[in-house]
Amino acid sequence: MNLLIMGLPGAGKGTQAAKIVEQFHVAHISTGDMFRAAMANQTEMGVLAKSYIDKGELVPDEVTNGIVKERLSQDDIKETGFLLDGYPRTIEQAHALDKTLAELGIELEGVINIEVNPDCLLERLSGRIIHRKTGETFHKVFNPPVDYKEEDYYQREDDKPETVKRRLDVNIAQGEPIIAHYRAKGLVHDIEGNQDINDVFKDIEKVLTNLK
Fold this sequence. Notes:
Helix content is 53%, strand content 16%. The protein has 212 residues and is an alpha/beta fold.
């Protein structure tokens, strides 16, 4: 099975990706792992990526696309199939992936799209608070401290509602054209992500069992 998994930050994509890999024995291809492996193995694209990273620059799309192509060309993919996680991030990368798969003779069979209302994600992602003295982490809603006094706690910049909202807005704007692209191909399977983790996976399992 050759799959993509998509979802906004906080939607539980990483958790479900791990469950899919365990249950269906596909190769989990995440962007971070791919970059690290390409650089460690000093592949042509890995060396190129490292030259940008060492200068503190963003790795251009053509290098990222090249690293994905290198990974999808490896033998294990032919045997197990793959679950791509964290790529494509832009519609341009989605078009590049279409081209790569066509060149490699690989067919994409499904896109798992974990849907969670952005307002719920805002609450989920911006609720983290840290105790000033102990450094202990809590969540205002899901794991509140017993003796909460606002002055005893702080939030990291990344966890503040306005920062989280900006991050979600960027992800929504980037993700919508990609989902539309794959929806037009009849590949998207929407999964309700605002339920128990195991129930989310049951829904995914049903979809993937029908695809096999």
